[in-house]
Amino acid sequence: EAQVTQNPRYLITVTGKKLTVTCSQNMNHEYMSWYRQDPGLGLRQIYYSMNVEVTDKGDVPEGYKVSRKEKRNFPLILESPSPNQTSLYFCASSSRQGSETQYFGPGTRLLVL
Amino acid sequence: AQRVTQPEKLLSVFKGAPVELKCNYSYSGSPELFWYVQYSRQRLQLLLRHISRESIKGFTADLNKGETSFHLKKPFAQEEDSAMYYCALSGKSGGYNKLIFGAGTRLAVHP
Fold first, then answer.
1. Alpha-carbon distance A91 to nearest alpha carbon in chain B (angstroms)
2. Each residue's pLDDT tens digit, B43-78
């Protein structure tokens, strides 16, 4: 089944404790992206990747890092999480940038205390 | 600047009533527009895209370039339509195509 998976689905952590949210897709998509969803703000792009080893900042990259060492995986790294990073995070992939249908993961709900 | 505006945070209707979820955009070129839907406890999924000119689950959306709008409509709402709806625009930004989402409108359909 073609899908985007994320782990963990739920995470409670404390300020400053590094964490990684994994994202994997099995559709051989080149383009992957991370969004955060906050009430009243919709989805805002954090980082995106156009292919292996090619990543760039989205609209709200501060406090986040990403890597794309393999085509299927695009982990999101929070080196020192802060409470304002409490949010719902979605990973998405598509066969090319922007104008193609994006396939979303199930979301990761993060609470930073 | 590219922007997608969904003026209503919440739209509450009764079953069988017509529904219109508003979406206005700001973009200087020729945009591609989408509606995504998120049902309770499910992931976002594409509902429809303007270039397909299709009707999905009874929903339609017409791109009006003069009014820069892409409103989502359904003549008779059903309870299972209750969900969060996001309008999105794909356009060039800084040399690459980017998908920009509106803030979303929650549709609540009451029996």
1. 10
2. 899 999 887 777 889 999 988 989 999 999 999 999
CA B97-A71-A99 angle, to 5 degrees, is 20
- The residue in chain B having the minimum alpha-carbon distance to the alpha carbon of residue A99 is B90
User: What is the secondary structure of B60-99 as a DSSP string?
Assistant: EE--BTTTTB--EEESS--GGG-EEEEEEEEEEETTEEEE
Look at residue B95 and tell me whether its pLDDT is greater than 70.
no
Q: Which of B44, B46, B99 comes nearest A98 by C-beta?
A: B99
Distance CA A23, CA B24 (A): 32
Mutate to test the interface with B, among A102, A103, A108 (most CBs of B within 10 A): A102
